[in-house]
Amino acid sequence: MTNDATVRVEDRVLKLTNLDKVLYPEFGFTKGEVIDYYTRISPVLLPHLKDRPVTLKRYPNGVDGKWFFEKNAPEHRPDWVRTMRLESPGSSKGNETVNYVMVDELATLVWLANLAALELHVPQWTVGPRGGKRDPDLLVFDLDPGAPATVVECCRVAEQVRVVLDDDGVDSWAKTSGNKGMQVYAYAPAKDTSEYAKAVARRLAKEMPSLVVATMAKVQRTGKVFIDWSQNNPAKTTVAPYSLRARERPAVSTPITWDEVEECQVPEDLVFTADEVLDRVDSAGDLFGS
C-alpha cells in the first residue's frame, strides 16, 4: 500500500494519508490496516453507531504517543460529514453545546480512521433527525477488575448480572472491553436505567462482597470487580462494539457468547485482535444484541 492515496468510498472521494505509518508499534499495525479493519467491519459496526453521537479517542502518533478525546467535530472536515449540535450533558449551566460527528456511512468511518481515531465511544441513547435526545435504549454494566483480578473474575460477575436480569425478564449479552474488563448490555428495562443499574450493582456487592464492589473508590477494588453502573449516566460514553482499542496490540471490543463467558479460564481466552474479529464475524455474524 502506498503512503498516500485518493480513494472512492461509495459516492465519496477521500484522500488518505500516511497509510504506512505504524500506529501499533509492537505489532507493526499501520494506519492503512486500521482503515482496512474499519472498512471490513463496517457492516456490523455501523448499525451500532447509528444515531449515536460519537466521541473520538485519537492517536495521531500511535498508541505510544500523545492522544486526546475529541467530542467536537474537526473544523476541517468534508462537507458531507453529518454533525449534530447537542447540549453538553456535562455542562453545569446546561447551555454549552458540542457539535458531534454522526457516523451514518462508511465514508465517515473511513475518514475518522484516517484521522487515527482508533477508539469510538458512544452513549446509551440516540438522537432523532432534528437533534432531539431520546430516552436511553440500552443498559450497560461496565465490569472493571482491580488487580490481581482479571477478565476471568469479570466473567464470574457477568454470569451473576445475567441471573439478576433473567429474573427480571430481561435478556442480556456481553462484549469484551478490548482492554482488561468487559461489559454486559441489555435493552433498557426501565426509564431510569442509572438507578436500575445501581440497584443491581449494590445487590451483587452485598451478595458477593469478596468479589464485587459497587463504589468507585479504588482502594476498595483490589482483587475485586467494580460494577460501574454510572456508565448509564447520559453524560457518559462506553466504547462501541467492534471499536479498536489503543493497547499494545490492535485488540477489539468484541461481542462474545455466554458460552465463551462461562468457559473463560485465563484472560487470553477473551482477547481478540482485528483479524480475529473479522474472522468471527465472517463465521458467526453480529453477536451484539443477539
TrEMBL record:
- Report the InterPro entries cross-referenced here: LigD_pol_dom, MtLigD_Pol-like, NHEJ_LigD
The UniProt record lists the DNA ligase D polymerase domain at 30-288
Q: Which residues cross the membrane?
A: none
Q: Which PANTHER family match?
A: BIFUNCTIONAL NON-HOMOLOGOUS END JOINING PROTEIN LIGD (PTHR42705:SF2)
**What NCBIfam families does the database record attribute to this sequence?**
ligD_pol
In Swiss-Prot or TrEMBL terms, this protein is called Bifunctional non-homologous end joining protein LigD
Give the species this sequence originates from. Answer: Lentzea atacamensis
Source species taxonomy? Bacteria, Bacillati, Actinomycetota, Actinomycetes, Pseudonocardiales
